[in-house]
């Protein structure tokens, strides 16, 4: 097995090596192939995602991606490398779990999985301005094919991992042509899985319940934009963004990545939380490589480290430990 490792920018260059170190303890046979992408690479080479990186990602069929620092203003030639990579590889289903962890910022009982369609919606990037820059217009695209495949993957995954309920989240009462299509197709596919409970919520109602009672959710299935927002909300109940892993799946492709950003304000200080990267590797092992025992070992080692009060500064400032020390303590539980 091979793993294409892209550290990216900022703290990606700190947390991804930590995750790779943990991976080597439980799966030493995995061959690591480091590649480049991101804003820093763009500034030197005028592309944020070189063809060589895409080629190696395709060859490995498994990718661990760190974080990128994208400017909030248009830069000629620049695009989000992670969004482009997901679409290029057709990693169409983004899985974002939110589970209780033994940290003060996590909520007891929370255990949900958010699945978002990962290749279309407003994130296709079809934008333009009119009226001499006074009007901005973006296209929202929802297709039957993309909705069918992400829904099938969701229900097959629910069946495989033993979850019981899927909540389809949309805004079909306002966006009848786009979200309406997503709703209709998702419910059509859901009818083939009668043993799994299916319900639906408008996205604003789902946001309300995410704040009021997150324990009501088991699995959420939703288009790209809503999933991006709801999964970040859910991350708060799991303890914070530094603890939130993700895995994007496609046909014979998997892309693991922590959901936090590049955090340039703390980059290089050695204080970033590598938990999300480590748990993303565990998701890769469990759900793509089917190496359940190795995934269990990583998750248990992370939980034990946290339960002993070994926190990075984002969780608890007093007595906080460094990225390196946190990694060493996780690895000590794997030895």
What's the CATH architecture name of the largest domain? 3-Layer(aba) Sandwich
CATH topology of the largest domain: Isopropylmalate Dehydrogenase
Number of domains: 2
Shape: globular
Radius of gyration: 20 Å
Instruction: Strand order, main sheet: write it out.
Output: 2-1-3-12-11-4-5-10-8-9
Give the strand content: 15-25%
Q: How many distinct beta strands?
A: 12
Low-confidence stretches: none
Secondary structure category? alpha/beta
Residue-averaged pLDDT, rounded?
95
CATH homologous superfamily descriptor of the largest domain: Isopropylmalate Dehydrogenase
In DSSP terms (H or I, runs of 4 or more residues), the helix count works out at: 11
Please give the alpha-carbon distance between the first and last residues: 22 Å
The H-and-E topology, N to C, reads as: EHEHHEHEEEEHEHEHEHEEHHH
Just give the CATH class of the largest domain: Alpha Beta
How would you characterize the largest beta sheet?
Answer: 10 strands, mixed
Helical residue percent band: 40-55%
Summarize the structure.
The chain has helices at 12-26, 39-45, 51-60, 81-89, 144-161, 179-190, 203-212, 224-237, 275-287, 292-307, 323-334; strands at residues 2-8, 31-35, 62-67, 93-99, 111-117, 127-130, 135-138, 165-170, 197-202, 219-222, 247-250, 253-256. It has 335 residues and is an alpha/beta fold.
